[in-house]
Amino acid sequence: MSIEDKIINFSKSRKEPDWLTEIRLKNFRKYFEFKKSSISDSPVEKRYTTFEIEEFLDNIPDEPHSGKFYEEKEYFIVDFTKNEKLNIKAESLKYTVLMGIREALEKYPEIVRNSMEDPKDEWTALGNALWDTGIFVIVPENRRCEKLMKFKTIFPGDIMVKKDIFNIGNNSYLQFVEYSNSMEKFNGIEETTINIGANSNLKHLTMIDGGQSKMVSVKNSHLMLNAYDEWYYALKNVNKHIMLSNADLLGDYSNLEYKGAILANGNEHYDVNTNIYHNGKNSKSNANVRATLEGNSRVIMRGSIKVSKNANNSNAYFAGNSLLLSENAKSNALPFLEIEGDRSQARHSASVTNVDYDQLFYLQSRGVDEKKAKNLLVEGFLDPVVRQIVIYEGTRYLIYD
Amino acid sequence: MDKREELKDIIPEKNYNGNFVTRARYPHVFEEGLSKSVVEEISEIKKEPEWMKRFRLRALEIFNSKPIPKWGPPLDLDFNKIRYYVLPDEVKARRWEDLPQEIRETYERLGLPEMEKKYLSGSVAVLDSEGVYANIKKQLQEKGVIYLDTDSALQKYPDLFKEYFMNIVPVGDNKFSALNGAVWSGGSFIYVPENVHVDLPLMTYFRMNLQSEGQFEHTIIIAEKNSSVSYIEGCTAPIYNTSSLHSAVVEVYVKENAKVRFTTVQNWSHDIYNLNTERARVEKNGKMEWVGGSLGSKVTMLYPSSYLVGEGASASHLTIALASENTWKDNGAKVLHLAPNTSSKVISKSISMKGGVSVYRGLIRIPKGAYNAKSHVQCDALILDENSKNFTYPHNEVYEETSTLTHEASAGKIGEEQLFYIMSRGLTEDQARSMIVLGFLDDVLKEIPLEFSLELNRLIKLQLERYGGTG
Amino acid sequence: MSDVLEIVDLHAEIEGKEILKGINLRLEKGELHALMGPNGSGKSTLAHVIMGDKRYKITKGAIFFNGLDITNLNTDERSKLGLFLTFQNPIELSGVKLFTFLRTAYSVHFPNDNKTFQEFITFVQSKAKLLNMDTSLLSRNVNEGFSGGEKKKSEILQMALLKPKFAIVDEIDSGLDVDALEAVAKSLKETIYTEPKMGSLLITHYMRILKYLSPDKVHVLMNGKIVMSGDYGLALKIEEKGYEWIKEKN
Question: Is the peptide bond before C196 cis (omega within 30 degrees of 0)?
Answer without folding.
Answer: yes
